[in-house]
Amino acid sequence: MTSPATTSPPSGRARLAPALLWAAGAALVAYAFVAGGYLVTVLGFAALYAIFVTGLNFFMGYTGQVSFGQNAFAAIGGYTSAVLTTAYNWPVFAAMPLGIGAAALLALAIGYPTLRLRGHYLAMATLALGMIVQEIAVQWDRVTMGYTGIAAIPPLGAFGRELPNERAQLAALLAALALAVWVASRLKHSRLGHALAAIAGSEDAARALGIDVARYKLIAFVVAAVYAAFAGSMFAHFVGFVSPEVFGLHMVVLGFTMLYVGGIGTVYGPLVGALIISLLPETFRGFKEFQDLAYGAALIVILIYAPKGLASLARLWTRRGAAPDAAAAATAGTSRGDAGAAR
Amino acid sequence: MHRVFTAAALAAALGTIAGPAQAQTYKIGIAAGLTGYAATVDRAWTDGVRLAVEAVNARGGVNGRRLEVVVEDNRSEPQEAVTVYRKMMSSDKVDAFLSGCVSAGNLAAAGMVARAQIPMVLCSILPQNEEHVKWAFSTLPPARFEVEKRFEYLKENTQIRRVGVLHDPTPYANLQKGVAEKSAAAYGLTLVGVDQYKQDDADLSVQIGKMNAAGAGAILKIGLGGTTLTAAKNIKQLGLSTQMLTSIEDLAVFRPVADVLGDKFFFVAAPSQVVDALPEGPLRKAISDFLGPWKARHGERDPNWAGRGWDAVMITVAAIQKANSFDGPKVRDAIETISGFQGTTGIYNFSAANHQGITVNPFVLATIQGGRVRVVK
After folding, report:
1. Which structural domain, as residue segments, surrounds residue A221?
2. Closest Cα of chain B to A147: distance in Å?
3. What is the pLDDT of residues B244-270, one digit of tens each?
4. What is the model's pTM?
5. CA spacing 20 to 30 A to A33: which of A259, B13, B16, B303?
6. For A115-124, A334-343, B241-250, which range has the lowest pLDDT when averaged over its residues?
7. CB-based contacts of B357: which residues, under 8 Å, 6+ apart?
8. What is the DSSP secondary structure assignment for residue B262, as one 8-state letter?
9. Same domain for A44 and A137?
10. B33 CA: distance to closest CA in chain A (Å)
């Protein structure tokens, strides 16, 4: 049943679209490395959020579930790193796995009963999780320092050496992002990914096919938590500061915006979304008090003209290019047929 | 055509990010919460800084340079604060930061500002880290001053000896709460309840009722925003005779509270809020120098936070003149030597060991009677 269009090698136009996108992204990163300045900071935040949203995409895009509580896992990753490296002088690469492990365990413990819920009920449960963890960050001030936050968190580094500047830290973040996206891509096209796609289509149909729905949903939830904790930990070391506001509802809203603007359910959508949503406010900064207005208008335009996200535009462009070719081929075929009939 | 437009838009975007060339002015950067929970306070602070800069420029600037202000909205969020600090450091090349009252935002950026050796004179609390605080100074009086003024009143003017403390979770409110817990006994007072609320809480009657049941004759309310009016309404609804003594705030917030509680409402006031009650002297003169242009521009708007912004500019200008340099480390060193500097909030005495300049309690306890602010003697 495979259509010829999907098995035929991609056309030149199909190859060109993603190539152009990658080239634009690479040019921006190269410019940041050469020019330095706060573009490095903006791209650093974009990379952090791209990791966070890639995880969210796993649960929401690939599995078709809803979570408003991923900030909880980012907070666990961030605070574990912050506390262990500042109060107990742990090295960064020892503190980071512990935070990720703690988040995975919590996701397992919370997800087991919670993921029996569906739709709005699951959304409410995950929202509560995010709020509870943030409240703990506020109230447990003996450890978290409450709203004062934890400062002077050491930057990323290994073997007793810290990365010397923001450019080096950006390079490390981009490497981490590449790894995160590669893993997500591999998982999406694995047996696990296919099972999740089936669940996203219909839980009942997936169950009828013999897929253990509860188990796969739990796996997706834990994977998303691991990504969130990784991003939270990297955030702590990139910025050097954490406080409860950092991991608030604002993070969830931003993550959702990036996911939908980039393209939910696609491998590269989170990447595109994180980059665009991080750059847009900076692009409009010159508008001063009209900055939010311009930002909001840009989001509306994007969602009207690219309702499936910006990552879908390349596909659309490829199809538009292919359409005249197909029409021409069809016309040629008809002509040939006519000619044959004439013969 | 649209390609040309796209190219132009991209160039404009990169231009915005790359920033303009450095001009020969002394640049003051402000990371302020122009939107978000700190908007009221930080907008006033920013307007105070702007007004002071205009006043300094009107008399020819400082050491031959005009002052220039760069303001960026941190949306009252630490992450946004880091971005705008970085933008002002690398694109605008600011020489000093006179940032607003969003403590978490200033603390988040303090490390990179310290590494860049740029002095900061802040509205917020100071960073805890030794390396960071070296470059930061605050115009905020110590948290204990606001608590002590209220405890003094209760001890000397009333028979109330049992008190409740109601506070929000912000760092400055927590500092005040800590002071209240430690110092109540020294004033012969007993804290019968210490409760926290959130800034967006719409009802505080549970906490207030609990304190009343424990015998509290007065409640110290610590924190900014609409919850002060909420607490006042709750006290009235519960039919209590409890006094409410609040921490410092915009007078616009206090007026409706006074309408609800009448003579049971007291608040800590900054000198600029009760200028008419001050005796002639250096403090009144400093406030008048600021209030003249402030009232001309902003009418009867509360001058407290703006006055501190004004002070921050004048302290920086004094440091530049003292150092005879615009160099960051030299200006920082000079601020540390500024002592006996009369500002609108009080006298600033900075030193290497003290970066929170106000060392003598400048506050008074005030009330509102017939729409007029009156100092409680």
Report:
1. 36-155+164-305
2. 6
3. 999 998 888 899 999 999 999 999 999
4. 0.81
5. A259
6. A334-343
7. B137, B138, B139, B315, B338, B341, B348, B349, B350
8. G
9. yes
10. 13
